[in-house]
Amino acid sequence: TWSQVPLAPPDSIFKLSAAYKDDTFPNKVNLGVGAYRDDDNKPWVLPVVKKATKILLEDPNLDHEYLPITGLPSYTTAAAKLILGEDSPAIASGRVSSAQTISGTGANHLGALFLSRFYQFNGDKKVYLSDPTWVNHFAIFRNVGIDPLTYPYYDPKTIGLAFGAFLDTLKSLPERSAVLLHACAHNPTGVDPSREQWGQICDVFLAKGHYAFFDCAYQGFASGDLDNDAWAVREFVRREVPLLVCQSFAKNAGLYGERVGALHIVAPTVETAGRVKSQLSVLTRSEISNPPAYGARIVSLILNNPELFDEWKRDIKTMAGRIIQMRKELYKLLTEELKTPGNWDHIINQIGMFSFTGISPDQSQALVEKAHVYLTQNGRISMAGLNSHNVRYFAESLDRAVRG
Ligand code: PMP
């Protein structure tokens, strides 16, 4: 048995982390990891999460019963408001079907599965992903029998958005195509459309009847403001583009391991929303029976208590602010001090946890091998891996790699 099973290659990000861990060089730097680190390169438990955990564990009525199949209602309701807005017309009219999921990955999976079962595809089952995108998107859609294709997104020449090609492709796709959009803080590039550009993207979605599959893994991480980062999603809802949103609390609440996420499907009518929800329940039942309670309870406490909610917003500003500070310091070192060849404006223009540096695979390789700076081959760096102690070492190493 199993002699026919081929050996799969290890996941490249996890492989990178393992190589970093094994490296004994004292000044090694890990820029591969997609998790927030504080200025001492330590994981950061948000103070608000500590408080909410204490409240939760001191509750004499806390039990360990199953949650409902579609999750903790106080959590999913508040989570929907967080992404769609307190005054969302879709929520007010009862058109949002929400289900708690295994973090953002589970939300993407459930959304993809729902589409695979129920979306009226124009021909074969296909989804269009940004080129590049979070690599897991490909496997998630393939797993449910949807063929992942790509649309142009990133322009290596400008290290920015390939807006013209992106828009032209959206226009040329068959009507009613399913298109995945990163709601904010695009992974891996850190390049987001401007509001004006989102408006034009929205125009094409409406004209062509495309379906918007929003993935929102970084709300709050782009600008430090939760509402600001939800702008594109809310604009699409306001303009009545058919859509769903995948939501994760891994990054913005630092609850990576608790797997707290949600899928929200906005339906055209209350009656449709009821039918959609019934099917989300059936799908969830067969896959996980019901979602895990612990993380959802913590997030529910934070979202439903005004004091904790305000504190959470401050914690998010701390994380986003430190990342923005690192962008500024790196930019200053490269442009003013080291005068590294090339244009580095993208370091401060890009958004969120990640930055596409624009360096070649060879230069990335040199950084890993010669400087003990760990990053993916595509030149993506996690800004959260930089801090006041290592930013200079990184800038000097990058400078050396660029000069060859
Ligand atoms: N979508 C994107 C674009 C991501 O970058 C990530 C995290 N790397 C996720 C979804 C899902 O993360 P999680 O399952 O940890 O919430």
TrEMBL record:
It is an enzyme of class 2 (transferase). Its EC number is 2.6.1.1. The keyword Nuclease does not apply. Its cofactor is pyridoxal 5'-phosphate. InterPro entries: Aminotransferase_I/II_large (IPR004839), Asp_trans (IPR000796), NHTrfase_class1_PyrdxlP-BS (IPR004838), PyrdxlP-dep_Trfase (IPR015424), PyrdxlP-dep_Trfase_major (IPR015421), PyrdxlP-dep_Trfase_small (IPR015422). It comes from the Eukaryota. Transmembrane segments: none annotated. Pfam families: Aminotran_1_2. The keyword Transmembrane does not apply. GO terms for molecular function: L-aspartate:2-oxoglutarate aminotransferase activity; pyridoxal phosphate binding. GO terms for cellular component: cytosol. SUPFAM superfamilies: PLP-dependent transferases. Homodimer. Belongs to the class-I pyridoxal-phosphate-dependent aminotransferase family. PANTHER family: ASPARTATE AMINOTRANSFERASE, GLUTAMATE OXALOACETATE TRANSAMINASE 1, ISOFORM B. This is Aspartate aminotransferase.
